[in-house]
Design brief:
The protein has 378 residues and is mostly helical. It contains 22 helices and no strands.
Length: 378
């Protein structure tokens, strides 16, 4: 049984803590398939109890969408106007060719300007596509724009899809990026392509960039590429720098999202190598994301000794891991009651009108930066 097969059914769990945990595991892991979208929509349709400020829909914007998914989203756009923005967000994850196929249905929602850009790709030769990508990058050097980044990635995917980007090119690009003292915006797209192509030869340079760079945009893209590549070499190289206090949030998250025994064992070793409570908490939470049975005593120890509640809700992660592993732990009921009590206290402190905007650690930051809350205003 694959890890996805283990975690996907939890999206429709009637236990809100388990459902929330499943979403957090899948986010940024690149494990989900287009079928995962339908499982999440099932949870939305069933109006399952949730600890999200709203139902699950606003928190699944990372799920991949294929043609069947686009058809489903078109149907929902026509019948569920209240949640239109969330369905439109999901369409960002559909391939350009599929969006073009359904232009007449989607143009009213995605906009004529957007479709004009998509249609222009087919008219561009190799040089034109590179110039288009360079133009987007140049604009990003002046103004951060998440929409422009998405368009740039579509151009990058067009280059990859036409076979224009050969395996050696991402490796050369990483070497050039190391010669800069900062990450230029074009570098974000070069790193993205290295991840999309799973170019393992770029791993050493990606690790150097991870240690060097300090912009969240660069660190997010580097982390994503390393997770996509996801080999044992990635695990070994990340383990070497994982407890650096400047990047541990990113490096440990990489090991959390790579679902391999090697990554799990690396996390076990790292927990023993640090006494920093924030780093230990992050590692313990990552082990819960692995559904690690071996790590249960370690996580129990962390809970008993105290943990950094800003870094992770370790109690909830531990509870959900026990449930998903079907472990009849003697403290399971007590932990659930504690979680319910904490959630009730929160809702009493922040009534529903205010609570609507409660932000999860992995949700987009409400400041509008485009970064995750845990890596921005948190």
């Amino acid at each position: 049984m694959t890890f996805l097969n283990r975690i996907e059914p939890a999206l429709v769990s009637d236990d809100p803590f388990v459902q929330h945990f499943a979403v957090s595991i899948l986010q940024d892991s690149h494990l989900a398939t287009p079928k995962t979208l339908f499982k999440a929509l099932e949870a939305y349709d069933r109006k399952l109890p949730t600890i999200f400020p709203e139902l699950i829909l606003p928190h699944i914007g990372f799920l991949p969408v294929d043609e069947e998914g686009v058809q489903e989203l078109i149907s929902r756009l026509k019948t569920d106007n209240e949640n239109k923005e969330w369905f439109v967000n999901l369409l960002d994850n559909a391939d350009t060719s599929v969006l073009l196929q359904y232009e007449s249905d989607l143009a009213p929602y995605l906009g004529r300007k957007f479709y004009k850009e998509l249609n222009s790709f087919s008219e561009m030769d190799e040089e034109g596509l590179f110039l288009k990508l360079a133009g987007i990058a140049n604009n990003l050097d002046n103004t951060y724009d998440p929409t422009a980044i998405q368009m740039g990635k579509r151009v990058a995917n067009e280059l990859i899809g036409r076979g224009i980007i050969e395996d050696w090119e991402p490796e050369n690009a990483m070497g050039e990026l190391l010669s800069y003292s900062f990450m230029p915006s074009i570098g974000l797209f070069q790193i993205y392509m290295a991840g999309e192509l799973r170019t393992e030869s770029t791993v050493p340079d990606l690790i150097k960039l991870l240690v060097r760079d300090d912009s969240d945009e660069a660190l997010e893209e580097i982390s994503s590429a390393l997770i996509k590549i996801g080999t044992d070499e990635v695990v070994r190289e990340v383990e070497k720098i994982a407890i650096d206090e400047n990047i541990f949030i990113y490096s440990i998250d990489i090991l959390a999202k790579i679902k391999s025994k090697e990554a799990e064992q690396a996390l076990m070793r790292l927990w023993q190598k640090t006494d920093d409570i924030s780093i230990q908490t992050t590692i313990a939470d990552a082990l819960c994301q692995h559904l690690s049975v071996e790590a249960i005593p370690l996580v129990e120890h962390q809970l008993e000794e105290g943990y950094d509640m800003i870094m992770a809700d370790l109690e909830m992660s531990f509870y959900a891991s026990l449930v998903l592993n079907k472990i009849d732990h003697p403290g399971l009921h007590h932990i659930k009651m504690s979680l319910i009590e904490k959630e009730d206290q929160f809702r009493q402190t922040f009534p529903p009108a205010e609570n609507e905007n409660k932000v999860g650690r992995n949700d987009p930051c409400p400041c509008g930066s485009g970064k995750k809350y845990k890596k921005c205003c948190l």
